[in-house]
Amino acid sequence: MNIKAIGAFSPTQPLEAMDISRREPGPHDVQIEIAYCGVCHSDIHQVRAQWAGTLYPCVPGHEIVGRVVAMGNHVKQYATGDLVGVGCIVDSCKHCADCDEGLENYCDDMTGTYNFPTPDAPGHTLGGYSQQIVVHERYVLRISHPQEQLAGVAPLLCAGITTYSPLRHWQVGPGKKVGVVGIGGLGHMGIKLAHAMGAQVVAFTTSETKRDAARLLGADEVVVSRHADEMAAHSKSFDFILNTVAAPHNLDAFMSLLKRDGTMTLVGAPATPHDGPEVFNLIMKRRSLAGSMIGGIPQTQEMLDFCAAHGIVADIELIRADQINEAYERMLRGDVHYRFVIDNATLSA
Ligand code: NAP
Ligand code: ZN
To answer: What pTM does this model have?
Structure first.
């Protein structure tokens, strides 16, 4: 079937309207009419070829929510009209150790929602800045939030799970002091989730203007990281720091805030290397520097259910599809409060 989308034909051109095609649903496929799609900083990295290997035309978008409109005859767990989501994964090998453990995000043959090879035209996956998507049922998530919150649910499919997964893995909860660095799409979800898990949360921002707003998200304290005195007040005090910053920066400034045995986990994925860490900043306090990539399908469902139970959605600014290039420029300036979400109904306008 042919549908409308927005995407880029090259790394240097703005995104523009285009027609794309989707496969007819196979026996295990779910066909979804997309209501909303969040705008992740990874979309910018990818569409502008800041990471290796972007395939064009590139239609980004992996924070997808919508309704089931059709399905294959083997699909039992979804029905027409169900509210569902699709995140960063649309396929994997389904039989390796990672897939068996529900960690499809670490499967060597994971197929990302866009920019990954696929038998479907045009030979690589096309994402959620589009009217419809067809996905194997294993990678479809059930949404139990009320319908009126749907636009704010979209960012949970990437920003939510990418922060939830490391917070769970490093056992964030009551009695733990947790830092979240960068208050953008990922960071603001990290603050909300760590707060809901019962941790003491300190937010780090480069934007003085976000100081008050970050407290409303659930931060117990906000540090403007450009101010050395504010940073020094937290020296050697954190159990865990989640670093979501989308650009290279000095990691030692944050490593030195970890107490003995503390861990800083990077989820931000800038195209060029960070400065640091100094080896002595690791060994003197047995500190760890780690990384984490999105989350598996079962944990993504767990995160959605956790958010529904705690009344958590993303704070969003809803945009028309034709505002996407402006939204990218604002994200690059850190001017996002805290996630742009496309109203996909505007794709047909
Ligand atoms: P975003 O909404 O643009 O937020 C990034 C935040 O980083 C900014 O709002 C800003 O917060 C801070 N920042 C500080 N200096 C910056 C600079 N020079 N340039 C840009 N940001 C700067 O981005 P996002 O969607 O949260 O994504 C963050 C990063 O995570 C990206 O690199 C993205 O590709 C990556 N990512 C990784 C995964 C994964 O699986 N590991 C998944 C999704 C996204 P302040 O204003 O508070 O300083
Ligand atoms: Zn993302």
So the answer is: 0.97
